From TrEMBL:
EC number: 1.14.11.29
Membrane topology, as annotated: Single-pass type II membrane protein
Compartments in which it is found: Endoplasmic reticulum membrane
Catalytic activity as recorded in UniProt: L-prolyl-[hypoxia-inducible factor alpha subunit] + 2-oxoglutarate + O2 = trans-4-hydroxy-L-prolyl-[hypoxia-inducible factor alpha subunit] + succinate + CO2
SMART domains given in the database record: P4Hc
Transmembrane domains' residue ranges: 43-67
Region described as Disordered: 1-23, 73-98, 467-495
Function: Catalyzes the post-translational formation of 4-hydroxyproline in hypoxia-inducible factor (HIF) alpha proteins. Hydroxylates HIF1A at 'Pro-402' and 'Pro-564'. May function as a cellular oxygen sensor and, under normoxic conditions, may target HIF through the hydroxylation for proteasomal degradation via the von Hippel-Lindau ubiquitination complex.
Primary site of residence: endoplasmic reticulum
Residue ranges with Polar residues bias: 73-85, 484-495
Taxonomic classification: Eukaryota, Metazoa, Chordata, Craniata, Vertebrata
GO terms assigned for molecular function: hypoxia-inducible factor-proline dioxygenase activity; iron ion binding; L-ascorbic acid binding; procollagen-proline 4-dioxygenase activity
UniProt keyword annotations, A-Z: Calcium, Dioxygenase, Endoplasmic reticulum, Glycoprotein, Iron, Membrane, Metal-binding, Oxidoreductase, Repeat, Signal-anchor, Transmembrane, Transmembrane helix, Vitamin C
UniProt name for this protein: Transmembrane prolyl 4-hydroxylase
Amino acid sequence: MTDNQETPDAEDTAPSGSATLPPLRPPCERLSCHKSSVCSRSYFVVVMVFFHVYIINVIALLFYVHYSSGQEDASQSRDTPSSNHQRPESGRPPSKPEFLRDVSLTRIEGIRVGHVQKVSLVPGKVHEMRTLSLKPLLFEIPNFLSEDECRVVMQLAQLKGLMESQLMVQDGQEELAKELNLSPEEIFNLLDINQDGQLQLHEILTHSRVRDGIWLTPENLREIYAGLKADKDDDGLLSLEEFRLLSNDAFQRFLMQQGVKRSQLVRNSRHTWLYQGKGAHQVLQDIKTRVTRLTRLPPALVDLSEPLQVVRYEEGGHYHAHHDSGPVYPETACTHTRLAANISTPFETSCRYITVLFYLNSVEGGGETAFPVADNRTYDEVSLIQNDVDLLDTRRNCKKSNLRVRPTKGTAVFWYNYLSDGRGWVGEQDEYALHGGCMVTQGTKWVANKWINIDPDYQRQARYQQLVSQQPEDEDDEGLTLNPDIQSSDIHQDL
């Protein structure tokens, strides 16, 4: 009998008197079989429990993902109303309307200094565009204007009438200081560029030139210190204690008493503005079209920019080194988009993304356009005035500039005043775009400027263009483009 055969009961197999019993299976074996059955059932139960828990977790995860996606879609639909399902408005625009970034500004590559590119600006003619510098990105295009076009622009400017580019002394600075409510300590810290606790000559010079429009030299400043008895210890530096003794307009009053010559102004020229929109002289419209092709920008941006500025420098005329546009900070507004942005700020700049400068005649002597720090390895404002050598002074130190462009009739030069933000829009100010007009030593100099105004804040620019596009078409000439005379004084700043 084998182990896996069952043993019948003794009562059925043995005779009634037999004392022998059949062999029984060891207790341990019976126990082992029983234990194995229990373990199998327990294992099955545990596996089933884990399986159900897993299924429940998967179902719960699917519900969570579905619920989260629903919430996200609902949130997006609330934040970005579509054209078919917009929330009813109560006649007021949304507080922060978002415009899609559907415009990318083309930026011409300079490749290297001296590189020549072929450009088609007018039908049947090819112009050559030469790279003059990479910092700033600066190009020269000979024969951009014909002799007849140069003559027409000068005649139109004379017919319109030219005005002084700068008044002798600018007013209103005292009111601005009061409006900002700045303490002497705050003004002192604002002027103290290197934050050494003392105002050096170049720091005061920079402030006076920007504020009063008067080009003081270090020698002039020492004379003013002596006249006002401002520098008590006669070390050429102003401490905070010495600065506190001066009123906001102390320099201005002293200069008014001494008298200011035209040669002491930041710029010495006359100018006017020529409208280039519908109904303007065909030559002016052609120039605008050519600028659009040259810069490769959307026509709407060029159309909504400043009119053409025409400037005449007599012998002795100059324009000290400056930037056509300033840096834009959160508290700064662009002049052309300020009204559309509906913001109020005492700080404004023209936001001139591109400058296109045309030479309307060839100058007999002087009158070059100087770029003092073009292609410098670094830019340091403090180093512009050192050891009484002022690189910003185009009357004295024009020859010390890194680059000078000689004025030749019909030639155009253009450069970018801002860098790219890396996403196809306007970035930070290019400080290397510092430039000025050298003193005319013989004859007369005629130039024209075409600026392309673009707000570095894409949303403000888009809002401005949307506002302008909503104006009736018959109001384009009068409503959208302000009177050039008004623009030159109120809207367009001559920086």
